[in-house]
Design brief:
Blueprint (H helix, E strand, L loop, with lengths): L6 H14 L4 H13 L5 H29 L5 H10 L7 H11 L7 H10 L4 H24 L8 H41 L6 H4 L1 H14 L22 H11 L7 E4 L4 H14 L6 E5 L9 E3 L2 H10 L4 E5 L5 E8 L8 E9 L2 E3 L6 H6 L8 H7 L13 E3 L11 E4 L6 H12 L6 E8 L2 H5 L4 E7 L15 H24 L7 H15 L7
Antiparallel strand pairs: 1-4, 2-3, 2-4, 5-6, 5-10, 6-9, 7-8, 10-11
Helix pairs in contact: 1-2, 1-3, 2-3, 2-7, 2-8, 3-6, 3-7, 5-6, 5-7, 10-18
């Protein structure tokens, strides 16, 4: 049997409940309910202590914020910022919604503190705040005490009941404290994960590519060659599957189609001082200007791509990337597109298999929100928020000035955050003839994707006004599949047709006497590239 506390002890316990509410309101109310259920403390005293603790702590937060708001001069920048955020014409419903949020905040963990702060900032009248918080506190206490009425603490001795009540209170306080600290972040991450999984274009490679691997396995059986794609472009290492040199491809393009190619030069490995001297020599002799591009000579999916705006940034890049590096003139565009081209050996004319239009996402500052908030309010950008914020780590929590445009990505790669869509509107007979002419000038090149930047869609359709910034080989994709409007099955059908072309061309080249790379050598090159890429900086 439990023994009730005497009046002096009960008074101290009630005071303890009131004070503990300032640390954790829910921990205090759970402890009080447990004490009442155990009959150590009578029900009126426990309920009164819990109510006073909740109500006084509510007023403490509200009062402090309200006092701070009242003390701000009306013409101060802080006051103007608050006015713009809380009282602009588009938020006339703020007071009504604030009262509703305050009333229901007791039921939603993690929303209570923001609701009280908002009430203070919005200058909610004291009687209104007192009435809403008083009623919600009383209702919450009645609910919790009713639940504990069915918990058999009354069968315990006084010491056991106090220990149990204390354990419940401390455990609840700890859990709720963790939830308040991490709860909002976890909810944001969960919401982002749900959005990501609902849109297949953002699936991780280990989820999206197994069906493609099965396709390639079937095609390898069908065409009798597991590494047959490495023979698709005999002029490129491994056919352009992995390990191919970007400078080798671009130099051939600069020789055969200089008017359509962005100038690029190789910086060889060596001491940093020597590389910087080599960079300055190329910069001056080929009339470069800031910004320019540095990227690894061997890379995929935009890895290590950097837009360099100063000698200091160039030195930092070359200090980190010690492998051969490509120096390339920056083509502003501002538009970019990818053209997946193929031609069978022995045929005069090739074809454009797909065209990808690339959009570089931009956020525009309003003078009130941080970059993190601007990204979060965009339905698509928020899915790639971790990629964008890692790129702008130093500015993530800065308020972006009104009208400032921040381009979230420079590399035209989907995994870096560029938006891909169907670019068939750019197609024309003149454009097809131009790309066919460029491709046929490249020795032993049959399939891959030209990435180009251009200023005018009309000029591009006429086969002019563009610069090739990269040519990828057999491993490149028909990236228009990542159009958000494209169903998953349609994407897989396109990829099957694409890889069938790669295997067909590889088989044709094998018949012409070109030997595919051995599986061991191919895997070794994949391993070497993976080891190199781990040292590449985060792409712009």
């Amino acid at each position: 049997m439990t023994t009730p506390l005497d009046s002096s002890s009960a008074t101290l316990v009630v005071a303890g409940i009131v004070l503990s509410a300032f640390v954790s309101e829910d921990g205090a109310i759970l402890g009080a309910a447990a004490l009442a259920s155990s009959m150590v403390l009578n029900l009126p005293s426990a309920a009164l202590g819990a109510f006073l603790g909740l109500w006084i702590s509510d007023f403490g937060v509200y009062g402090a914020v309200r006092l701070l708001r009242e003390r701000l001069p009306q013409d101060s920048r802080s006051a103007q910022w608050l006015e713009a955020r809380l009282f602009d014409p588009g938020r006339n419903h703020a007071r009504r919604s604030g009262q509703l949020a305050l009333a229901f905040s007791r039921l939603a963990p993690g929303t209570r503190l923001p609701a009280y702060i908002s009430a203070g900032l919005l200058r909610m009248p004291v009687p209104t705040f007192a009435a809403i918080t008083g009623i919600s506190a009383a209702a919450w206490i009645a609910l919790i005490f009713s639940l504990f009425h069915f918990f058999p603490l009354h069968a315990m001795a006084t010491g056991e009941a106090l220990a149990t009540a204390g354990s419940i209170g401390f455990a609840a306080s700890g859990i709720l404290a963790v939830w308040r600290i991490w709860g909002s972040k976890l909810r944001r991450q969960l919401a982002g994960t749900v959005r990501k999984w609902r849109r297949w274009e953002f699936w991780p490679a280990w989820v999206f590519y197994p069906p493609v691997a099965l396709m390639c396995g079937w095609l390898a059986i069908r065409f009798r060659g597991l590494t047959l794609p490495t023979a698709a472009n005999p002029s490129q290492r491994n056919g352009g599957m992995v390990g191919e040199s970007k400078i080798g491809i671009l130099q051939e393009l600069m020789r055969s189609s200089p008017d359509f190619t962005a100038d690029a030069y190789l910086l060889t490995p060596g001491p940093l001082v020597k590389r910087m001297q080599e960079l300055e020599f190329l910069f001056q002799s080929h009339e470069f200007s800031f910004p320019f591009i540095l990227k690894p000579d061997v890379a995929q999916r935009g890895a290590g791509f950097k837009k360099i705006g100063s000698w200091r940034a160039a030195a930092a890049y070359l200090a980190q990337v010690r492998t051969p590096v490509l120096l390339q003139k920056y083509v502003s565009g501002p538009n970019e597109a990818g053209f997946f081209y193929y031609r069978f050996p022995g045929q005069e004319r090739g074809r454009i298999f797909s065209i990808t239009h690339k959009t570089f996402p931009v956020v525009v500052g309003d003078g009130h929100k941080t970059l993190r908030e601007l990204i979060a309010q965009d339905d698509r950008a928020t899915i790639m928020a971790s990629t964008y914020l890692a790129r702008f780590r130093e500015r993530a929590d800065e308020i972006v000035p009104c009208g400032e445009r921040i381009r979230l990505v420079e590399a035209g790669n989907h995994c870096q955050g560029c938006i891909f869509s169907d670019g068939s509107f750019l197609d024309s007979e003149e454009l097809r003839r131009t790309f066919d002419s460029i491709a046929r000038k490249l020795p032993q090149f049959f399939i891959g994707r030209f990435d180009v930047r251009y200023a005018s869609p009309d000029a591009l359709r006429q086969g002019r006004g563009f610069h090739i910034i990269e040519l990828n080989g057999a491993a490149s994709e028909a990236t228009d599949i990542y159009d958000a409007r494209n169903p998953l099955l349609s994407a897989y059908r396109t990829l099957y047709r694409q890889w069938e072309l790669v295997y067909r061309i590889g088989a044709a080249n094998r018949e012409r006497g070109f030997t595919p790379t051995s599986l061991w050598c191919f895997l070794r090159d994949c391993w070497d590239f993976r080891a190199q890429a781990s040292y590449y900086p985060l792409a712009d």
